[in-house]
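Chapter review: from sequence to fold.
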Amino acid sequence: MRNIVRSLRHQLPLALLGAGLAVSTLSTPVFAAGGEGGDATPTCAKGKVYDSRSKKCVSKNSSFVPDKDRTEYAYALAEAGRYQEALEMLDTLKDPNTKEALNYRGYATRKLGRTDEGISWYKKSVALDPKYAKVREYLGEAYVVKGQIDLAKEQLMTIKSICGTTCEEYKDLQEAIEKPSKI
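The token string follows.
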């Protein structure tokens, strides 16, 4: 599923631009990959955040949007390729030191090409919850980017001990190790 979303993420903006529509001016939320539950979290125009209670895009400065929504929204932005915006959203958290926020900060940072910095964020997330499979996947992918396949395989084995070989995190990291050009 995530690979399909990744593929569509790159095709949708081009298709919209080809149709004469500017992606950032869409007033209706656009759905992107969601957080832990796999639910889709909409993305909004720059400067907005999706509020799950009102089901609307609101100002990112709104004090009514809880950290959970902001964290999930940051991940949706990162999955949509809007990495800098994801980091800016994470900067608005009241508590930026959750396993998810640290993981997503690492993800967005790594995707911006700052792999070592991303790894440092991932390690902080691991310290909070060593059994958090998603951070283990992303940490492993960062090691693949650095060519440290032995360390990536260690993360793969840790994921196996957490959720087996059929969970998405295991499958995605295994694919990244086998086909590094896909990450």
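Two observations follow directly from the output. The longest helix spans residues 2-18. The beta strands are 30-32, 41-43, 48-51, 56-59.
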